[in-house]
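Changelog-adjacent note: as of this version, every example in the card shows the full chain rather than a window. The one below runs 294 residues end to end.
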Amino acid sequence: MQYTLPLAPFDRIASLHQRLLAVFGPPSDFVRLDPVSQMILAMLSGRTRNETALGVFAALVEHFEVARHKGSWQRLAKASSHDLDPLLEGITHPERKAEALPRVLQEIASLRGALDLGFLHGWPVENALAWLERLYGVGPKTSTATLNMSTLRRRVLVVDTAHWRAARCLGLVPEQASPERSVRLLNRQLPNGWEASDTEEHHILMQDLGRTFCARSSKVSCPFTNVCAGSATPQRTRLLEEWLRDAPPAHALPGAGVKTSQISPLKEDAANLNQGASGAPPPVQTVSASAASC
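Full-length structure tokens:
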């Protein structure tokens, strides 16, 4: 009797990841902030360009003397929304964030007795996400960024607006799926063997795709046109999994692999901010993934 070995299941996320690497090149190294600082940066960057959010974050660090106080955000926790209004110029929904930032810090201090999220390092990821999302103003994007992009380095996928847009274009999530629901759907598709560094890298690559092609017209033809379900494409000619199995090798875009991390200017700040973080790994990591504020 002849036996046929079962075929190994095709993992479309892992295969897509390799295509993205070939097109965009590996993301650059990045700087890690302590979890509270990363949470604040993620809240600032909601619906806001990374460069603007980073500039405002740096202004908050300086104004509230966070580095001088060994990474403590206590002064921001005590600030009023009127204090914050002039510091949030350029941020989307500044009035909401002026209310949310002090309030979320007050909640953490009230629940834990200190402004520190290092305790989440040993928690199961789902429990840590649920705890964070009970805080005022913290949704799935901010909670995943806090766990994955900070010194906590947890295995969870961050999905910002650009990533969500690319995922819809590729058919990884339904067209009608909200950004919040997409975070859950995409995290369920992660390859079993992936670690935190893999999810970080995948987020940055999908973000590159969403920003370069899905949000605006580009002079360079999108390498995923044949499988795009976006409104700009009359009709996709292939389904993603079929195309990934059969497509020829991808060609790198001009400039691929020569990126610099947008968060790199925070390297010195990160070293100072993380002084007060307890139980956290070193703040600066050299990894294959690039940091992204979300």
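Structural remarks: Residues 24 and 256 are 5 Å apart (CA to CA).
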